[in-house]
Automatic annotation (TrEMBL):
The lineage of its organism: Bacteria, Thermotogati, Deinococcota, Deinococci, Thermales. This is TolC family protein. The keyword Kinase does not apply. Belongs to the outer membrane factor (OMF) (TC 1.B.17) family. It is found in: Cell outer membrane. Residues 271-291 are annotated as: Disordered.
Length: 423
């Protein structure tokens, strides 16, 4: 359990309290991934257990045909036995090694699934945060647009503009009001989309460029190759003879001690059996009897079947297919990485341009205010400059959101999680 919590603390550094991504800790998809990771860890622990106990009991009801018939009442009517076995795993070999390797792969897949789920949620949260920010600025700009349209209509009425100009001014006001209503609806939708993903009242953590580790798809393809290699090794061992060795001690007619070992796993098994009725001595024709006190057994088993050969060939083809899939994943990952980084560069250039555009609009607004103070600009011109400045802010928010989204695509590509950021 301590190892799992350590892993989760490493995997969820960006979910520290204090910033906008805190709600992700309670997201159902993340909890599902955590449960699957814990299940895989338990499965790995089960496979790596150094010993196992087995208890087995038997009961039998006996019927006889005796000659003479008077012999039957003296024979036991029931029989039973109880066996306690201890299976040891001092090291991994054969089937035991395969089971452990499969459990390790399952655990690794669960880790990758956890990373995939969390990076996807982080990308959704960052995108939702950006959409909400854009929606807020959109409402502000639309509100300023309505104010500008109202002032323009008022100015047209004051100067007694012709009917055509008045109609155009009234239509411009209606369009501005519609844009404001649409912006408000967009804001409500953005709030709903952010529920359970991001806290809109807290700051979004900084998103630095990812470190660029192994792509997630490439890691999954490598696990598939490892699984195929395990299956091929198992199919190959099925063609080999199996040797079983056992050493048995009979301290009494009721008790048996046994030590057994199989070439398939090299797991020594110690067992004790208590049976009733007891084994009777074996009589000999010349008189007397004997009882076995110890026994050494060696058995050899070899199965030859066209089905086993076909299974081996199928496993080999699956291994080849997994290797080819890995090569294809490497090519695809290289192309996808180049495409994502190209998109990131484009978003970065657009962000720099939006920043310069906003700076230019801020300067133009300041100049408009100065001209208004000198009587060289009308209040309507100031409203137009403020609207242009707000639209530039909206454009910058869109560029920032697009840049963050491109970054998060790279985080998803690598399966890399956001580093810890102090709020």
């Amino acid at each position: 359990m301590a190892r799992l919590w350590a892993l989760l603390f490493l995997l969820v550094p960006a979910l520290a309290s204090g910033h906008a991504l805190v709600p992700l800790r309670e997201h159902p998809l993340l909890r599902q991934a955590q449960a699957l990771l814990e299940a895989a860890r338990k499965g790995l622990e089960a496979q790596a257990a150094p010993l196992a106990l087995n208890l087995q009991g038997n009961y039998a009801r006996l019927g006889y045909e005796c000659t003479p018939a008077s012999l039957c009442p003296s024979l036991p009517a029931t029989g039973g036995s109880l066996t306690l076995s201890l299976v040891l795993t001092p090291f991994s070999f054969g089937e035991t090694a395969d089971g452990l390797a499969r459990a390790q792969i399952a655990y690794r897949r669960a880790e990758l699934g956890y990373r995939k789920a969390l990076t996807a949620l982080q990308a959704q949260a960052v995108a939702a945060y950006g959409r909400h920010r854009q929606a807020l600025l959109g409402v502000e700009a639309a509100t300023k647009g309505v104010e500008l349209a109202e002032k323009a209509l008022e100015a047209a009425r004051k100067r007694q503009a012709n009917a055509k100009e008045l109609r155009e001014a009234e239509l411009a006001l209606l369009e501005a009001q519609n844009r404001l209503e649409e912006a408000r609806r967009g804001l409500e939708l953005a709030k709903q989309a952010a529920l359970g993903l991001v806290d809109l009242e807290r700051p979004l953590p900084e998103i630095p460029p990812p470190k660029g580790s192994t792509p997630l798809a490439l890691e999954e393809a490598r696990l598939s190759v490892a699984e195929a290699e395990i299956a091929y090794g198992s199919a190959l061992r099925a063609l080999l003879p199996q040797v079983q060795a056992s050493y048995l001690l009979y301290p009494s007619g009721n008790d048996t001690l046994a030590l057994s070992l199989s070439s398939r796993s090299l797991q020594p098994t110690l067992s004790y059996t208590r049976q009733d009725p007891a084994r009777q001595p074996t009589p000999v024709p010349s008189g007397g009897s004997y009882r076995t006190q110890e026994e050494l057994r060696l058995s050899l088993s070899l199965t030859l079947s066209p089905g086993l050969l076909a299974a081996l060939e199928a496993a080999n083809l699956q291994k080849q297919g997994a290797e080819e899939a890995l090569r294809a994943a490497e090519i695809q990952a290289h192309l996808q990485e180049a495409s994502l980084r190209h998109a990131l560069q484009g978003a970065e250039a657009a962000l720099a341009l939006a920043q310069r555009h906003l700076a230019a609009q801020e300067q133009a607004l300041e100049e408009t205010r100065k001209r208004l103070a000198l009587g060289l600009e009308s209040p309507l011109g100031l409203l137009q400059a403020e609207l242009s400045w707000m639209q530039a802010r909206l454009g910058l928010a869109q560029a920032e959101s697009e840049y963050r989204n491109r970054l998060m695509e790279l985080y998803q590509f690598y399966g890399e999680l956001l580093p810890e950021v102090n709020p």
